[in-house]
Structure formats: C-alpha cells, structure tokens
C-alpha cells in the first residue's frame, strides 16, 4: 500500500484517474430527458481542460437545462471543485475544435471580459451533440428575449 517505490511504474489511470481514456465511458454519461421547467435536462461527462498545459484537467458533468449550462464536479473525483451555472443568454460562442474533434470550447461573456471553458468529450460525435444542444439552448433563449440578434 502507500506510495510506490522509486522506479515502479503505475498505469496512468492509477495516479490520474481523470486522464484514463476509459474514465469518460465509465462515468454516467447522459441522463435522459427529465423535465425541468419548459426544457429537458441533459447531462454529459466531460473533462475540463485548463488553459495552462501544466495545470491538471478535471472530470466534470456538464448539465444543460432550459435556461442554464451547469458545470458540476463529477461524482467520482473526490468531490473537488465547484458548480458554475452559466445562463444561455451570456454564451457568445461554442464550437468543436477542427484539430481535435473531441475538444470543444464555450465562450461566456462576463461583466468585463470573456471567459473560456475548454472541454473534452468521450467521442467526436458526443462533442458535436453537446455543441448542438448548447447552440439550440442559446437560440431558444434568444427567441424569448427582446430581440434575437447577435449570434
């Protein structure tokens, strides 16, 4: 038990469970359409990538409901982290990376600057589906607002 002796090799999933490729498939990926308000509630297992390369990545659950995108800590990850709720009305951009199709980015307008959330999905299809859901939520909120301009 304890820490490994010097020179002993451990699999990457032992030291860093969030970097194990099978992590995203073992985490609860999608919750069906549980109704909250007028929209549906969907959950996706993602990995939140930090902008600096030396900072660790963290497993997160991305939950989308009728008016908000919630970035929550994953159930299996020690419970570290906080929940951030972002209204769809403040999302100014969302796209899948061309170079790495499992990666996608969400740009959020805060009071004075734009905040960037980088995520990695389990597959390129899931990344495209998440981006499509976010765009659909932004479009729905835009229709209900004063004027649907901007995006």
UniProtKB/TrEMBL annotation:
InterPro entries for the chain: PH-like_dom_sf, Sin1/Avo1, Sin1_PH_dom
Residue ranges annotated for the SIN1-type PH domain, each copy included: 40-139
Pfam families linked: SIN1_PH
GO molecular function: kinase activity
Gene3D superfamilies reported for this sequence: Pleckstrin-homology domain (PH domain)/Phosphotyrosine-binding domain (PTB)
Coiled coil: none
Keyword annotations from UniProtKB, A to Z: Kinase, Transferase
PANTHER family, per database record: TARGET OF RAPAMYCIN COMPLEX 2 SUBUNIT MAPKAP1
Protein name: Component of a membrane-bound complex containing the Tor2p kinase
Organism: Cryomyces antarcticus
Lineage: Eukaryota, Fungi, Dikarya, Ascomycota, Pezizomycotina
């Amino acid at each position: 038990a304890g820490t490994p002796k010097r020179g002993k090799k451990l699999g990457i999933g032992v030291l860093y469970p969030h970097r194990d490729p099978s992590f995203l498939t073992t985490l609860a990926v999608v919750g069906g359409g549980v109704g909250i308000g007028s929209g549906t509630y969907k959950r996706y297992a993602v990995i939140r990538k930090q902008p600096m390369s030396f900072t660790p990545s963290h497993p997160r659950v991305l939950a989308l409901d009728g008016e908000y995108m919630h970035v929550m800590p994953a159930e299996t990850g020690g419970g570290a982290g906080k929940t951030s709720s972002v209204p769809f009305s403040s999302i100014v951009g969302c796209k899948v990376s061309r170079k790495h199709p499992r990666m996608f980015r969400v740009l959020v307008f805060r009071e004075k600057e734009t905040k960037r959330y980088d995520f990695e999905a389990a597959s390129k299809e899931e990344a495209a589906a998440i981006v499509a859901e976010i765009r659909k939520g932004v479009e729905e909120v835009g229709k209900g607002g004063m004027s649907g301009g901007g995006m």
